[in-house]
Amino acid sequence: MFGNPDWFHRESNSVAPAPCCNRGWLYYLGWLAAVAVPTTLLVGSGLFPETAIWLLASNSAMLLDLRRLRKEIRRRETLSRMHYIGNDEETGQDIRGGVHEIGRPA
Q1: Is residue 89 part of a domain?
Q2: Confidence class of residue 4 from pLDDT cuts 50, 70 and 90?
Q3: Which backbone phi and psi does 11 adopt, to 5 degrees?
Q4: How many CB atoms lie within 10 A of CB 65?
């Protein structure tokens, strides 16, 4: 994955995550240049079958990278909403539960 999930925030209606800093915009600009420059050179040389192959390969790579990026952003959002049981950092008190056996008569 070339993009860092910290550079983006997830938009619910969007296919691609929205950049939240300059590095996110540079990421998109880099992909655009990586696809457009060779495409322009290939079309200018009259290599149309090679252009189609290049567009297919480069767009597939970009979409796979965006898919991994969206998946990581979603995973981080899910983890940030989870609650953990452990030591209470504010009071220093151990709030873990003990081991209980179920189904054993008292």
Answers
A1: no
A2: confident
A3: -105, 130
A4: 15
